[in-house]
Amino acid sequence: MDGLLLAGATFCLLVSFGSTLFTLGAGKFRPGLVNLTAILMGFALLTADLWQRGQVQGSCPINSLFDVLVFMSWSILLIYLLVGPAYHLSLLGAFTSPLVFLVLLVAQLGPVGPSATGRFTRDPWIELHASLTLIAYGAFALAAVAGLMYWVQDRELKRRHAGALLYNLPPITDLGIANARLLWLGFCLLSAGFAAGFISGMQVHGAKFLASAAIWACYGLILLLRRARRLPPRRTAAASMLVFGVVLLSLPAIQYLSSPK
Amino acid sequence: MNIVCAGVSHRNAAVDIRETFAVGPHEMEATLEQVRKIDGLAGAVIVSTCNRVEYYTASVCPIRVLDGLRGFLEERGATQLARLYTHDSPASIRHLFRVASGLDSMVIGETEILGQLKQAYAAASGCGATTRHLNKLFQNAFRVAKQVRSETQITRGSTSVGAVAVDLAGKIFGDLSGRRVMILGAGDTSERTARSLVSRGVRTVIVANRTFDRAARLAEEIGGMAVHFDNWPQAFEGVDILICSTAAPHPIVTREKLEPLLAQRNGRPLFIIDLAVPRDADPALNDLESVYLYDIDSLEHIVRQSLDVRRAEVVRCEKMIDHHVRDFVSWMRTHNDHLS
Asked: What CATH number corresponds to the domain at position B170?
């Protein structure tokens, strides 16, 4: 079973991505049963994979960069399944599946090393800190996806070209609202995760602390400016994509500094 | 059993001819009663809309029924019977499937015809004028139309400037209820567009016109409020959709005028529909953040795009219809009893 569950989940995400491309290519995209079923199956397989590795490691399976990437993929799907229907943003799945597929592909084929194999015993507060932080990154990932959709729709409307994307993407106002709310969700989860870290009294590498604080401050600043009406939705969307890009790039370094030695 | 279709439509008869064939809702039941008396006819459905009048009949002897139908129409006062087109099965089946799918409509892909067909079928079925074959035929036609609509782009986009503007407003704001519209220049097209927006839930309409009386009249008609033309910037707060159609020889909505007003909007989108020629809105406004400017050419371009997409889809629709016609014909072969 080792690796099979993960390969199965990756395949499901590929099917979802492929189905999206096919339907978009046909010029008529309605997120259908194939897309949702593939995402649900991918989520179920990822959950099973995490549970299996959690049993092996005796803790939340986030003890290597590989584990972190898989957990983050699971978080992105979790947040999508929770908020996608609520905001009537089923098309979010069309943009989410390629992102998760890529993250899973990097985890399995990229130079990220294997899953941790030893048993790790940690303070529950540290476990809570790490898992909440990664779920927050899932929300930020979806905020970036909503931001990308906002940019695409903005471009379609500005071009005055009534292509398939214009008709099938959600209204730009709704995308702006979803982007902001996902940022708030991610920020609250991240803050809670950091609070759990403080409570645990864990020792943190200075560079990791600074990087984490910088990410938290960046998202906080975006939300502060948005609330103060200083950052219009288009720039909020751009900022959410940019900061999430930085998060993705800094993830290996942060993981290296926080992995059990 | 054969399905025979006879009728006139916008394709072969002008309105003055079509109106002599028309069957009003109040006379539908009586007309069906009379049609059923035609020798050899087992059942009938009459479709009478502004663009077509068609008789779909089930019969074992199509020639006798067609002769009877011609005589009946002549008696009813229909003129130019030579225009009457007739189809025997399977051409009649194909014709109905095409009509139901909007392929034979004046605007390809329009969906109103499906509702009209359903009404016609319900009226015939309600007075016992349908047969097993006609029931199956019409139910299949409704299914085919649904499939064609959902699996092709035959209904994509809108086919009038006003409808495109409303669609775009939906793509910008989503729900239009509670939105505010300002009309600069009370022209016919702007009025029609505003009415379409009001029908979609727009809350407030502000009308500004050079002649205040005309603005007041239009505002009263559509339940809005009028302002003096020179005061439109003061009344602009909270406006989401700006419709311009003045006769001004130069742009009246310029970057200099709009930028200070936009500063208070916190990036809330502004949709400008410029229907005027010469244009009322400076084209550079489209470069401003969260401002979406569509002039008459861009709206008409989208209309043409939609029609092109629909025309390009016809081949795919025809293939689907072919498949369903074959299925129906084979069903008819296996259920070819004279009593049905």
From this structure: 3.40.50.720
